[in-house]
């Protein structure tokens, strides 16, 4: 007969290619929605728990994918397996001693920060939406242990599959949803948190606000974690505590010196000059000491700023300019070597190319093997030999 290996995936609403993380998230969402104490369907809650118990265990999942639910049951009695308890979903991982209080997974908030924020520091407020326990009238401040599983969160049941043969299944307690405590309801709540981003903070830096996250019965309240998400800057690039920016200058500036201003990250304008008589070559990298970012956790010291210069050359020169430059720069005299013919350089033009052996371009597939960067050709012939 045909074996159903799809049902458990459909129950959780995930695909067969779902990762363990996706399966855990799907289970948590559906289990909280269908919990009987929250008005959910007990049968659906049971199906969800059974499906998760199987798919969260790689070995059981492999058996299920091959032989269906019956194959999993006949695979032999199992202990808790890979399920653990519902608090695995909250960052615990693995079973813990009953005396150790479990913690809800943190709420992560990415905060976009500009380089200006990192240079000057930033204070801002964020609104966090979290789950908060709603206390019922007369309910204890600390939830008491679930009577169904005696606070373990897991319950073992025996099922007869044929006369004289039983199978044992350990899964989350249906009474408490695997929590180990009497379930309490939760509601959405918002909280305003003030965040101070330190000067010089790196990308990915974390600011933890303990106990400001989600609440869940029987677990330690989760944290809120704010993560610095550094945005690209239109002028500067960050390299640790150093800054880099590119500056175009004319040939005249390269030869006679630069004198320009730029707006720094604190809003101040900085005048930049080069030493008298210094020549700036193309792709020269020069330094403005202590003009970079404040050191993280030591904001009274600063990194450096590096300027990468590119030199724009004029397209043409007039005869009198050539004469003057020849005198100033002591340009080499004309060649006195004998020659057979004379050729004059012209500006490169795409239409001048003859990438086909018979002349012209005649399509990209006909280009020569020995192409030159910027002229097309080359490298396509490799595909024919692979």
UniProtKB/TrEMBL annotation:
Pfam families: DnaJ (PF00226), DnaJ_C (PF01556). Residues 348-386 are annotated as: Disordered. Residues 7-68 form the J domain. PANTHER family: DNAJ-LIKE-2, ISOFORM A-RELATED. InterPro entries: DnaJ_C, DnaJ_domain, DnaJ_domain_CS, DNJA1/2-like, HSP40/DnaJ_pept-bd, HSP_DnaJ_Cys-rich_dom_sf, J_dom_sf. This is J domain-containing protein. The keyword Zinc-finger applies. It comes from the Eukaryota.
